[in-house]
Amino acid sequence: MEKLRRVLSGQDDEEQGLTAQVLDASSLSFNTRLKWFIICFVAGIFFSILGTGLLWLPGGVKLFAVFYTLGNLAALASTCFLMGPVKQLKKMFEKTRVLATVIMLVSKYWQF
Q1: Closest CA to 18 of 29, 8, 26
Q2: What's the CA gap between 23 and 25, in Å, rounded?
Q3: Distance (Å, whole) CA 36 – CA 21
């Protein structure tokens, strides 16, 4: 509705910078952020438990790897809805957290 008002009043979107246009188009309300955080977090837990349960099936090691990885990625992505991906990455690589971040990334994606 705000875009329609700007166009009708003669204010052009090109007056805004690219960053302002992207932020204007991608902002979510707090309720939407909270709902998607819960959805992703619950999906992450579900996939992790499912992967662990599939571990004991014949050939379940591959299924475990896929579902457990999906669960971890969904749980990590859920926090992006609360604070945003850029802020999350900045916090992950702060001076006090960089060692834990590097250890987590290396241990998750290092293949022996």
Answers
A1: 26
A2: 5
A3: 23
* Distance between CA atoms of residues 26 and 32, nearest Å: 12
What is the pTM assigned to this prediction? 0.61
Helix (H, G, I), strand (E, B) or coil at 10: coil
Between the CA atoms of 87, 90, 91 and 97, what dihedral angle is there, to the nearest 10 degrees?
170
The DSSP secondary structure of 32-86, one letter per residue, reads HHHHHHHHHHHHHHHHHHHHHHHTTSTTHHHHHHHHHHHHHHHHHHHHHHHH-HH
For residue 109, the number of C-alpha atoms closer than 13 Å in the C-beta half-sphere is 8
For the record, the structure tokens of 78 come out as: 């859920």
pLDDT digits (tens, 9 = 90+) for 96-111: 999 998 888 888 777 6
